[in-house]
């Protein structure tokens, strides 16, 4: 029996257990995915303990994604993003740390026919998700503009992301950035609690592909506005799905049963 899991606090509402369990069932794997809620002061012990117990892989969520960097051998992308969301214990030597949010966003876009290489992309948000998406898009060949409510955070992030520029979230600036953009990613939490959008509807156009990282609700106001002007829309569950797919494939070396994982996820949203 292989054991995988999620480290976070709290983890009660996580969609990862049903998504990964659906994959094990579909492929007939003897495996379980369980959740762990260590205290923040115990995170290093938790990872040492997981290794000692033979746990094969862990996802990591709030509030541990940054702390875990110091406890594993983080790869180059996770180090640049400054956050680990996947730990792999299956190799020889120390556990390795990865960030599959970046790849999750890229695979979500590509799955909807979006070409990222050479695209002009606007990332709204410069928190954890914004960092992952900005580095992921730039590595994949996009030119990245970062817009954030706290403009200094966008400019600081843009200094780290090759070719990127940072901006505030003022409506005029956003409209200018989006006028000739191909891809827009909302990586803020706006749209989660209230029916609000970080991007005015009149700045959107039909040649855009719009990915909203928010997945509760699935249909955010931003995606409704984007659909209304004929843009390609990609909801946040696709990003969540593909970060899980990426972790599954890294841990097991098997091709993930994407349809079964997607169905399990969407059943619960
Ligand atoms: P975070 O690190 O706390 O960053 C929050 C971001 O939202 C910051 O850029 C913040 O701007 C911005 N923001 C918050 N309230 C705002 C407001 N009222 N107006 C404008 N901007 C506002 O959070 P995170 O981890 O990046 O997560 C962001 C969202 O992405 C969440 O909804 C999360 O669920 C989602 N997410 C989805 C996936 C997925 O797989 N689909 C993965 C990761 C995250 P300031 O810097 O100015 O505060």
TrEMBL record:
UniProt keyword annotation of Signal present: no
Quaternary assembly: Homodimer.
Residues that coordinate or bind NADP(+): 76, 125-129, 148-153, 213, 236
Protein name, as recorded: Shikimate dehydrogenase (NADP(+))
Annotated organism of origin: Haloterrigena gelatinilytica
SUPFAM superfamilies according to UniProt: Aminoacid dehydrogenase-like, N-terminal domain, NAD(P)-binding Rossmann-fold domains
InterPro entries with a match to the protein in the record: Aminoacid_DH-like_N_sf (IPR046346), NAD(P)-bd_dom_sf (IPR036291), SDH_C (IPR041121), Shikimate_DH (IPR011342), Shikimate_DH-bd_N (IPR013708), Shikimate_DH_fam (IPR022893), Shikm_DH/Glu-tRNA_Rdtase (IPR006151)
Domain Shikimate dehydrogenase substrate binding N-terminal: 6-87
EC number: 1.1.1.25
Family under the similarity heading: Belongs to the shikimate dehydrogenase family.
HAMAP family according to UniProt: Shikimate_DH_AroE
Function: Involved in the biosynthesis of the chorismate, which leads to the biosynthesis of aromatic amino acids. Catalyzes the reversible NADPH linked reduction of 3-dehydroshikimate (DHSA) to yield shikimate (SA).
Primary enzyme class: oxidoreductase
Pathway linked to the protein: Metabolic intermediate biosynthesis; chorismate biosynthesis; chorismate from D-erythrose 4-phosphate and phosphoenolpyruvate: step 4/7
Reaction(s) catalysed by this chain's protein: shikimate + NADP(+) = 3-dehydroshikimate + NADPH + H(+)
Residue span, Quinate/shikimate 5-dehydrogenase/glutamyl-tRNA reductase domain: 115-189
GO molecular function, one term: shikimate 3-dehydrogenase (NADP+) activity
Any GO BP annotation: chorismate biosynthetic process
GN (gene name): aroE
Secretion signal, residue range per the UniProt entry: none
């Amino acid at each position: 029996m292989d054991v995988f899991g999620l480290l976070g606090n709290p983890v009660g509402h996580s969609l990862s257990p049903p998504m990964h369990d659906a994959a094990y069932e579909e492929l007939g794997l003897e495996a379980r995915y369980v959740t762990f809620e260590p205290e923040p002061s115990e995170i290093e012990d938790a990872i040492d303990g997981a290794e000692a117990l033979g746990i094969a892989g862990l996802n990591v969520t709030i509030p541990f994604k940054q702390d875990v960097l110091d406890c594993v051998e983080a790869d180059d992308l996770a180090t640049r993003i400054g956050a680990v969301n996947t730990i792999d214990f299956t190799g020889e030597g120390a556990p390795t740390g990865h960030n599959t949010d970046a790849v999750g966003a890229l695979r979500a876009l590509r799955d909807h026919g979006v070409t990222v290489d050479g695209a002009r992309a606007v990332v709204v948000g410069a928190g954890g998700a914004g960092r992952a998406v900005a580095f992921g898009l730039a590595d994949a060949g996009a030119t990245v503009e970062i817009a954030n409510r706290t403009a200094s955070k966008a400019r600081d992030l843009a200094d780290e992301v090759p070719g990127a520029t940072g901006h505030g979230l003022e409506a005029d600036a956003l409209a200018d950035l989006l006028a000739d953009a191909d891809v827009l990613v909302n990586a803020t939490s706006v749209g989660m609690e209230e029916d609000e959008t970080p991007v005015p509807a009149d700045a959107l156009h039909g040649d855009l592909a719009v990915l909203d990282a928010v997945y509760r609700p699935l249909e955010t106001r931003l995606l409704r506005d984007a659909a209304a002007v004929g843009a390609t829309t990609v909801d946040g569950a696709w990003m969540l799905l593909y970060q899980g797919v990426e972790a599954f494939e890294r841990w097991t070396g098997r091709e993930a049963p994407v349809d079964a994982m997607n169905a399990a996820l969407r059943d619960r949203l």
